[in-house]
Structures are given as structure tokens and as C-alpha cells.
Amino acid sequence: MRLKFLEHQILFQVCSIPILLVLLPMSFESVRAFFSAHAPEIEIIETAESSSTVARAAEAHGVEPAQIAKTICLRVGDETMLVVASGTARLDNRKFKDAFGGKGRMLGPEEVLEVTSHPVGGVCPFGLPAPIPVYCDVSLKRFDEVVPAAGSTHSAVRITTERLAELTSATWVDVCQ
């Protein structure tokens, strides 16, 4: 049996048959550790239903879609950032360019996983492997409490908008419509 280690993958060969195992980062566990260290009073909610889209998350958590706090991973030039916005908000290209000096490019699923350690559908600004600038869009401010994902497609937290911004050291911006 031969082993070859790749990033997040192990390729091994048994009886001339190559087998590839994909190792997913411990995304949910990193979020759990983040809340244990920084906000032990906040409970992570795990659901049997997938909350990988705004509509599914709203249904799973009994809130309106706008109350879901979606996290968008973008790059402007060499800078990667997270924008947390209301589930029904859409990025406004003009506002975004005015705020950040360039057009934002949404990262693909592999890039998102690499940067955040969270899979698409579970992306959140908590438990990140390295510091990334976080921006909260003002579309969240109309709610006392929002529901962002918690590192997996089956987990989330209920959190006040102010606590969300505080825990993530977010800057408030107006980049959505």
C-alpha cells in the first residue's frame, strides 16, 4: 500500500486500485471552539434539515428569509473579505465599488473552503483559520436577532446583530440593495 498526502486529501493504492479520501476541515468544531472561548452563552443549533440555502435555513429555523444572515466570501484585488448581509439582500456593485475601491469577485466553493474552512451553505464569520476582514451590511440592522450558519449546512446560531458585529470585529457597511 502506497500513501501520498495532498492538501485535504490522502491518495493510497491497494492492490493496484487507487483510492482517494477527501478530508474535510473540522469546520463545525472550529465554530464550536470559537463560541466556547468567546461567547459560551450562545448555543449552536443543529438541525436534521439542511439549511444550505436562505430559504431552507429560514424554514428550518422558523424565521423569515431576510432574518438569515448570509456570509459572502469575496476578493477585491488581493484582499479577501467576508460580507454578512440579510438573506434577501443583494450586493449592489456600485455601492460595493465605492466602499472597497474595486469590483468584488465571489470566491468559488473550493476557494471558500480553503479561506474559511467552512463549506458553502455553512459559511460564517466564526471559527476562521486565519483573520479575514468581516463587514456587516446595514441590511441586518432592521432585526434585533439574526440567524447565521455555524460552519456546516446543518447548524446555525441565533445572535443579536450588535453581538455578531462585536464578536467578529466587523465594520458596518452599506453595500447591498
Supply database-style keywords.
single chain; about 180 residues; alpha/beta; YbaK protein; seven-stranded mixed β-sheet; three-stranded antiparallel β-sheet; 12 strands; about 25% helix; globular; disordered N terminus; Prolyl-tRNA editing enzyme YbaK/EbsC (Cys-tRNA(Pro) deacylase); aminoacyl-tRNA deacylase activity; YbaK/aa-tRNA-synt-asso_dom_sf
Summarize the structure.
The protein is of the alpha/beta class and 177 residues long.
Describe this structure in words.
The chain has a single domain, classed as YbaK protein. About 25% of the residues lie in helices and about 30% in strands. β1 and β2 form a beta hairpin.
Question: What's the helix and strand layout?
Answer:
Blueprint lengths: L1 E5 L2 E6 L2 E6 L4 H12 L5 E3 L7 H8 L6 E9 L2 E8 L6 H8 L4 E2 L2 H8 L17 E4 L7 E4 L6 E3 L1 E2 H8 L2 E3 L4
Parallel strand pairs: 5-9, 6-8, 8-12
Antiparallel strand pairs: 1-2, 2-3, 4-10, 5-6, 5-7, 9-11
The 3D shape can be described as globular
Taking all Cα atoms into account, the compactness measure Rg is 18 Å
Largest sheet: 7 strands, mixed
| Helix amount | 10-25%
The poorly predicted ranges are 1-11, 20-25
Secondary structure class reads alpha/beta
Count of separate DSSP helical elements: 5
CATH topology: YbaK protein
What is the terminal-to-terminal distance? 55 Å
The total count of strands amounts to 12
